[in-house]
């Protein structure tokens, strides 16, 4: 589910659920949260790099798991692993680098708002399909994306449910560097290693100082998004979209 490796004070954490395009189910939420907690407490780790195995970085929330959930439980109350992962991303004290190797959908895109550096493969694409699923955004993306890339770029990504190319992400400021596929991990690791060569206490201080002014606003956005998700998940538009997803999957598997 996750592959871990550490070299030169850089911990690489690879999503390894390729059969589901690295979509987050409850187990992967918890495994990723645990990986962040472990890296945060390990003095031999200065920087974490997140990437994906196969042709996807992360396909967001597992829609089959969303479809199978108990509808009597509010969505954000039931998604304990999601809440725990986001809390750990908000509180993660060390530099976080994302190397987007392939498609990134939903949470695969919105978690980039927590990254300190984002590298993308030229073959990677991003999409936030919230409106096409009849739901609200998540992961405090309604605050983080406007702060990072401006209101209009964020509005397009969060409202349109359309794909964003690596070049578009770079122009918006959502990606820092775009690399050919074979160069993605060497490039991301090179920059991570250069950061990791600096004193850890200084890296932590810089990240703390940059993040502290935004912490309350991030949590407020997250609370509002969760309330909207609880209202919309299981509603008519969401149910229609999920049923369409299930029908398309069944057709492919025949």
UniProtKB/TrEMBL annotation:
Q: InterPro entries per the record?
A: ClpP/crotonase-like_dom_sf, ECH/Chromodomain_protein, Enoyl-CoA_hydra/iso
Quote one Gene Ontology molecular function term: delta(3)-delta(2)-enoyl-CoA isomerase activity
Query: Chief location of this protein?
Result: other
Q: Where in the cell is it found?
A: Peroxisome
Instruction: Identify the keywords attached in UniProt to this record, alphabetized.
Output: Isomerase, Peroxisome
The organism's superkingdom is given as: Bacteria
Give the transmembrane ranges: none
Record's protein name: Enoyl-CoA hydratase/isomerase
The record lists the organism as Mycolicibacterium vanbaalenii (strain DSM 7251 / JCM 13017 / BCRC 16820 / KCTC 9966 / NRRL B-24157 / PYR-1)
């Amino acid at each position: 589910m996750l592959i871990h490796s550490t070299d030169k004070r850089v911990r690489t954490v690879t999503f390894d659920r390729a059969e589901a395009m690295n979509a987050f189910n409850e187990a992967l939420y918890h495994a990723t949260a645990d990986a962040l907690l472990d890296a945060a407490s390990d003095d031999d780790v200065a920087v974490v790099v997140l990437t994906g195995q196969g042709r996807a970085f992360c396909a967001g929330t597992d829609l089959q798991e969303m479809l199978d959930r108990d509808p009597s439980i509010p969505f954000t109350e039931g998604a304990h692993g999601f809440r725990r992962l986001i809390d750990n991303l908000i509180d993660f004290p060390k530099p976080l680098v994302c190397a987007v190797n392939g498609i990134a959908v939903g949470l695969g895109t919105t978690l980039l708002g927590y990254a300190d550096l984002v590298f993308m493969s030229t073959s990677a694409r991003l999409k936030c399909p919230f409106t096409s699923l009849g739901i609200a955004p998540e992961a405090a993306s309604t605050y983080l994306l406007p702060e990072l890339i401006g209101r209009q770029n964020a509005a397009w990504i969060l409202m349109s449910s359309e794909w964003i190319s690596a070049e578009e992400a770079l122009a918006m400021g959502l990606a820092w560097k775009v690399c050919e596929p074979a160069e993605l991990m060497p490039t991301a690791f090179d920059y991570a290693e250069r950061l990791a060569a600096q004193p850890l206490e200084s890296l932590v201080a810089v990240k703390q100082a940059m993040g502290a002014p935004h912490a309350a606003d991030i949590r407020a956005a997250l609370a509002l998004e969760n309330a909207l998700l609880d209202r919309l998940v299981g509603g008519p538009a969401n149910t229609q979209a999920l049923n369409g997803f299930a029908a398309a999957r069944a057709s492919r598997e025949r």
